[in-house]
């Protein structure tokens, strides 16, 4: 198994091009199931999760054509990105998302809504637990039932059927769910009549999906608010839609600049996608400036500890919590980090303490006692994508050598991570057999 080796303590300087958002691209790909006409997605990232979703969709009968880098993306630039993918589902060939794929990538459940809406049937494996919590899909299922689907749970699979067409309904999510909102948005677009989703997720990836569905002929309003109105249509058609920039990749490299006390220009991204994180960074003493589609992040020693609490968008994203903890462990002073979205998302804590970080977990909160830039490198390993990258960040700041094991987690969500960092001065390499 590959590992990443870092010789830390080098301030990063340079430019990193931000790719398309994994968590926007995955539901957009699932939306390809909703029409027999081609759906073309631009600014697609190249990631393991995108390949996994591609494999699943091919099994369901989707033809996928991919282009190389788009014109305009300068491949000489660090981290050039932006592929085009065309999905075409002339006929649904299978309605089954097997355990093996769903277990590996929970976003596979996003085929449920589109399959039931277009084909009247879906068999999707229940995902089971994962490294960050139990993560059930009960809210997806209840909402689909409200739209008229019959749901049966058998042998670890959800079997959803609808005799004719789904029917619009009022859905009130008792808890904000990103994937649940996405599944219902897609299903309701082809339902008969109007659906209203209350307490809908407001993440920018939801807006990207709603814009895509509207470009395909759907009738969705209320994007960015907690209430979405969807007037169902009989069929959807071809469209060409850009994937929004990856706000978590943006935030991760912003922390890379800050934690190494360097300066990075993050290109091809948007400040508004990550305002809560940038606000906290500014409070900590990090300098952030916007310049067109670039954000410049610079930091010096003497950062302050800043408390954060993860919340649904526009709050501080849970997907930035581990990276924030790495940064705070190099601040001068204490900070409290509270996780409210997932029940088990402090798995990086024992690994961060191996760098010398002083972190204590009390229930859903962690107290980080920052002692300035004092981390020292260590061999570590992580259990999920964002935890892994927080260890890379700590390794970039730490003196001496760090070896991050289980690199496959990183490949799920960060495109050419080592190359992008190396181009900015990091001493980082992938090595075999960690
Ligand atoms: C999405 O997961 C993201 N994944 C996650 O990113 C992200 O952490 C999460 O949203 C929160 O922002 C994708 O977009 C592919 P939820 P999702 O449904 O949709 C509970 C990453 O690192 N819940 O908003 O699965 C659930 O257990 C990943 O890129 C139910 O109880 O998240 C959690 O506590 C990790 N029942 C909370 O709601 C349900 O039916 C929010 O989950 C559904 C969810």
Question: What do these coordinates show?
Answer:
The protein is of the alpha/beta class. The protein is 30% helix and 26% strand. It has 14 helices and 24 strands. The chain has a four-stranded mixed beta sheet with strand order 22-23-1-24. Helix 12 links the parallel strand 22 and strand 23. Helix 1 runs parallel beside helix 2 (48-59) and helix 1 packs parallel to helix 7 (204-215). The longest helix has 13 residues, at 247-259. The N and C termini lie close together (6 Å). Ligand EPZ binds at residues 23, 26, 106-107, 133, 135-140, 175, 177-180, 318-319, 341-342, 385-386, 413.
Keywords:
alpha/beta, binds ligand EPZ, 434 residues, elongated, four-stranded mixed β-sheet
**Which structural class matches the secondary elements?**
alpha/beta
Biggest β-sheet description: 4 strands, mixed
Anisotropy-based shape: elongated
Low-confidence stretches: 71-80
| Neighbour order of strands in the largest sheet | 22-23-1-24
Using DSSP, what is the number of strands? 24
Which distinct ligands sit in these coordinates? ligand EPZ
Average residue-wise pLDDT: 94
SS element count, helices: 14
Helix coverage percent: 25-40%
- End-to-end separation in angstroms reads 6 Å
Strand content: 25-35%
Gyration radius (Cα, Å) is 21 Å
């Amino acid at each position: 198994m590959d590992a990443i080796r870092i010789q830390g303590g080098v301030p990063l300087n340079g430019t990193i091009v931000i790719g398309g958002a994994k968590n926007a691209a995955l539901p957009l790909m699932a939306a390809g199931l909703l029409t027999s006409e081609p759906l073309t997605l631009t600014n697609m990232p190249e990631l393991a999760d995108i390949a996994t979703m591609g494999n699943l969709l091919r099994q369901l009968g989707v033809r996928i054509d991919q282009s190389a880098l788009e014109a305009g993306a300068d491949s000489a630039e660090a981290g050039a990105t932006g592929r085009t993918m065309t999905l075409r589902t002339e006929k649904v060939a299978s309605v089954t998302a097997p355990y093996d794929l769903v277990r590996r990538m929970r976003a596979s459940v996003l085929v449920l809504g589109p399959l039931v809406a277009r084909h009247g049937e879906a068999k999707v494996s229940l995902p089971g637990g994962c490294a960050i919590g139990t993560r059930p899909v009960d809210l997806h299922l209840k909402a689909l039932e409200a739209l008229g689907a019959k749901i049966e749970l058998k042998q670890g699979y959800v079997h959803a059927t609808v005799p004719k067409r789904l029917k619009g309904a009022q859905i009130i999510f008792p808890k904000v769910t990103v994937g649940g909102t996405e599944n219902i948005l897609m299903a309701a677009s082809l339902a008969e009549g109007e659906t209203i989703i209350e307490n809908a997720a407001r993440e920018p990836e939801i807006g990207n999906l709603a814009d895509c569905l509207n470009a395909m002929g759907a009738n969705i309003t209320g994007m960015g608010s907690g209430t979405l109105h969807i007037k169902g249509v009989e069929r959807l058609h071809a469209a060409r839609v850009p994937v929004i920039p990856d706000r978590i990749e943006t935030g991760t490299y912003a922390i890379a600049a800050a934690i190494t006390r360097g300066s990075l220009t993050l290109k091809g991204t948007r400040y508004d996608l990550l305002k809560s994180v940038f606000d906290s960074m500014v409070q900590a003493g990090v300098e952030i400036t916007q310049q067109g589609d670039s954000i410049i992040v610079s930091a010096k020693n003497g950062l302050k500890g800043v408390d954060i609490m993860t919340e649904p968008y526009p709050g501080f994203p849970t997907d930035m919590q581990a990276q924030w903890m790495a940064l705070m462990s190099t601040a001068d002073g204490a900070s409290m980090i509270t996780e409210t979205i997932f029940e088990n998302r402090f798995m990086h804590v024992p690994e961060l303490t191996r760098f010398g970080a002083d972190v204590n977990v009390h229930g859903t909160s962690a107290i980080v006692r920052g002692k300035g830039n004092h981390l020292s490198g260590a061999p570590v390993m992580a259990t999920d994508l964002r935890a892994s990258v927080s260890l890379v960040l700590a390794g970039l700041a730490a003196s001496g050598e760090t070896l991050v094991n289980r690199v496959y987690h990183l490949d799920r969500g960060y495109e050419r991570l080592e190359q992008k960092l190396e181009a900015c001065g990091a001493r980082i390499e992938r090595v075999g057999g960690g």
